[in-house]
Structure formats: C-alpha cells, structure tokens
Amino acid sequence: MRIDIISVLPELLQGPFQHSILKRAQQKGLLEVQVHDLRAYGIGKHKQVDDYQFGGGAGMVMMIEPLLNCINDLRQEHRYDEIIYMTPDGERLNQPIANRLSMQENLLIICGHYKGIDERLREHVITREISIGDYVLSGGELAAAVLVDAVGRLLPGVLNDETSALFDSFQDKLLAPPVYTRPADFEGWEVPDILLSGNTAAIEEWRYDMALKRTRERRPDLLEDEE
C-alpha cells in the first residue's frame, strides 16, 4: 500500500512513521508513506497557500490552486482509491472504516489547517472525509497519523502475529477482554484461574464473556444494532 499525505507542516509527520510497527511495515516493503509539502505549490514569491474568506469572518482558508496543483501532480503518477480530507465534520473513524481502507492500494490524505480548505475541493475532488473525534485540532497532521496507523497495522504481514488484529477492540463490535501477564500473583493480586487452566475452549469462552460484559458496561452503544 502507498499513502501520500499533503501537509502545510510536513515536519509534524516525521516522527510517527519512523518507529515501531509502521517503521517495520515500510522496511518490509508492505507500506510506503510519502509526505508532500504544500508550500512547494504555493502562489507567488511568498508561496502563499491560504487567503481570507469571501464574505468576511475570522480565520484563513486554504486556497484551491496550490492544493489542486499538488493533487493533480500526484494523480499523474498514481491512481488513488480514495482522496481523503481529515476534517472534524467528516464521518467518524471506526474499525470497519480502517478495515476497508486497508484493502486499498493507494490513498491520498489532505491535512487541513486554518478554517479548512476551499469548499469547491470538497465538492469536486475529495472522495471521503474522515474525523477522528468530536473536537478540533490545530491541523490535520495528527489526525492523518492516527488514520495511517489504524490502517497500516492491518496490512497482511505487518504484525508479527497476523491473528492479533482480529481480536482488537471493535473488530466484532466488542471491546477487548482483560489481559494479564506474569507474575500470576503480584502482592496478592491474582490472575483469574481460568487463564492458567490450559483449557483453550474454556478460556475463549471466558474472554468472550468478559468482552461482552466490558462492552455492555463501557460502550453499550456498540451493541444497540445487535439487539
């Protein structure tokens, strides 16, 4: 998979993709992430990428021309399955969305800034709009990093144990069950006996019951469609 990201502040994305799972994914050739500096397409001597709003109002708007020129240059080299704009009013990112995006080959992500991007780009160019939550960030870079991480870890071969992602929270509309590791008894805090029993079937049943219990307690909304 290849993911291109357009950003006004590409330096904000230098760290997230150079460590841990995403670093290994790139080293294995399973994922390629390229960040493009929008200011390279800026207008005039000062490489302008934003301007005042028509109609007045506080805050600047990212201009259509630099963004579209950058997008068109990238589209000459790659066919994108989705052109994604990270925005607070997009559909909220969830596990099914990450699952579906992980099956694509090429994604282009646009990081917003200021008051957002010119609406005409959203009407005519953007194919999908995604939010990571009901709050506002200073820019779309951190949201883009979250999306890339959520998608990239699902690519076949990225995780050492490929079955691990199948048991993550939200994969079956359930939160993950409690997990424990050694020692089995720490200052009187003991691991449930069932996990030490060696009875695989009983352990899986316990894990399902605990996942269901935790979901009912903490995120009952995930179960609403099932009832």
Task: Describe the model.
There is one protein chain. This protein has 227 residues and is of the alpha/beta class. The chain folds into two domains: 2-152, Alpha/beta knot, CATH 3.40.1280.10; 169-226, Trp Operon Repressor, Chain A (Orthogonal Bundle). The protein has helices at residues 20-27, 64-77, 95-101, 119-124, 141-152, 200-218; strands spanning 2-7, 32-37, 50-52, 60-62, 82-92, 106-111, 128-131, 185-186, 189-190. The strands form three sheets. It has a five-stranded parallel β-sheet. It has a two-stranded antiparallel sheet with strand order 3-4. A two-stranded antiparallel sheet has the order 8-9. The radius of gyration is 22 Å and the shape is elongated. The model has no long low-confidence stretch (mean pLDDT 93).
Features:
two-stranded antiparallel ribbon, Alpha/beta knot, 19% strand, single chain, 6 helices, alpha/beta, 2 domains, 5-stranded parallel β-sheet, 227 residues, Trp Operon Repressor, Chain A
Brief account:
With 227 residues, this protein is an alpha/beta fold. The protein has six helices and nine strands, in the order βαβββαβαβαβαββα.
Alpha-beta classification: alpha/beta
Low-confidence stretches: none
- Examine the secondary-structure arrangement and name the CATH architecture of the largest domain: 3-Layer(aba) Sandwich
Share of residues in strands: 15-25%
Alpha carbon gyration radius: 22 Å
Q: So what's the CATH class of the largest domain? A: Alpha Beta
Shape: elongated
